[in-house]
Amino acid sequence: MSAEQTQAYHAIQIGIISQTNTDVIKAMTINYPEEAIGITRATKAFGMPVVISFTVEADGRLPNGQTLKEAIELVDNTTQNGPAYYMINCAHPICFSHVLNSEESWVARIHGVRSNASTKSHAELNECKELDSGNPVEFDEQNRALLFKLKNLNVFGGCCGTDHRHIEEVCKQCIDAFNRLKHAHRTEII
Predict the structure, then answer these.
(1) Is 2 helix (H, G, I), strand (E, B) or coil?
(2) From first to last of its 190 residues, what are the pLDDT tens digits of the chain?
(3) What is the pTM of this model?
(4) Cα–Cα distance between 83 and 124 in angstroms, integer?
(5) Fold entry, domain 3-189
(6) C-alpha to C-alpha distance for 187 and 89, rounded to whole angstroms
(7) In DSSP terms, which residues pair with 106 in a beta bridge?
(8) Helical spans, DSSP H, in 80-163
(9) Per the annotation, does 95 bind a ligand?
(10) Could you tell me which of 87, 165, 95 has the C-alpha nearest to residue 133?
(11) Start and end of every Hcy-binding domain (predicted)?
């Protein structure tokens, strides 16, 4: 769908939601920037903040072949930095960590990840006969490493294949690493 079609499609739901006590719209597993642009425009029309969460393939690119950088920059340029922030979901950290350069401004717009447990591609997961829950300890290590690439990362979660074991590992290790980074950052400012 085009940005205009996506805006019209989502405006109905967003309009209804905007009349509730909802604080923010979160659009997950977005595959292409036009979809994100349409959703962002619809949320702006109703005065609602929005979080856009892209998904990527095993090569770190969106399913349409665009880079994450191209997608985020296109949405931001087209909507005047409309989304409150961005996330990445429905992909394992090894699929996208290699494309994140903390020195690039677009990376600072990413505040959250909801990673898959499995390192398999979406195509491989579609062919699985059983759920691939990966390795919870490795899942934590790879999510924790993102703290050093994504300076504004403060939202963690699990997507396909994750369960309480994955989230417990992230909580045990990432919270400690996050607190050390926050303390080190505070020390630098003083």
Answers:
(1) coil
(2) 999 999 999 999 999 999 999 999 999 999 999 999 999 999 999 999 999 999 999 999 999 999 999 999 999 999 999 999 999 999 999 999 999 999 999 999 999 999 998 887 777 777 878 877 888 888 888 888 888 888 888 888 888 888 888 888 888 776 676 676 665 543 332 2
(3) 0.88
(4) 31
(5) TIM Barrel (3.20.20)
(6) 32
(7) none
(8) 93-96, 122-127, 136-146
(9) no
(10) 165
(11) 1-174
Q: Do the annotations mark residue 171 as ligand-binding?
A: no
The domain locations on the chain are 3-189
Helix, strand, coil percentages (3-state) for the chain, rounded to 5, are 50, 15, 35
3-state secondary structure of 79: helix
Residues constituting the chain = 190
159 marked as part of a ligand binding site: yes
DSSP 92: -
Cα three-residue angle 83-31-116, rounded to 5 degrees? 95
